[in-house]
Specification:
Elements: H1 3-16, E1 20-26, E2 32-38, H2 42-53, H3 57-68, H4 86-97
Antiparallel strand pairs: 1-2
Helix pairs in contact: 2-3, 3-4
Length: 110
């Protein structure tokens, strides 16, 4: 992430009062696209995990992008459904699903 993206992320965190994720995509050697997203709430994370468990990982990512992307700060190729933008849109759906992290614990028998 460049200094510019760090600055934008910081400003968005102040504006929205939450953690902001800056997802970076490299379209070519000189062409980068950035998608800024707010941290999803717990209920949405649960929905996304349920969807992903049922083989709807791309739909889960789409839900996150639709609900939490900050469109005015992000590259518009993520939101304009043209054939040349499909790689950005699908990449965003896949990457957004990775925002939902969790720890799997194991019960230890005594």
């Amino acid at each position: 992430m460049t200094e510019e993206q760090t600055r934008i992320t910081s400003e968005l965190e102040q504006k929205y009062k939450c953690k902001i994720h800056c997802l970076e995509f490299q379209a070519s050697e000189e062409d980068y696209a950035f998608l800024y997203m707010r941290e999803p709430d717990l209920y949405t994370k649960m929905r996304v995990l349920d969807m992903a468990k049922g083989d709807s990982f791309l739909n889960a990512g789409k839900l996150l992008v639709d609900m939490f992307a900050i469109k005015e700060a992000s590259d518009q190729r993520f939101f304009v459904e043209k054939e040349e933008n499909h790689k950005f849109i699908l990449g965003a759906y896949l990457k957004a699903g990775e925002l939902v992290e969790f720890i799997v614990g194991e019960l230890k028998k005594k």
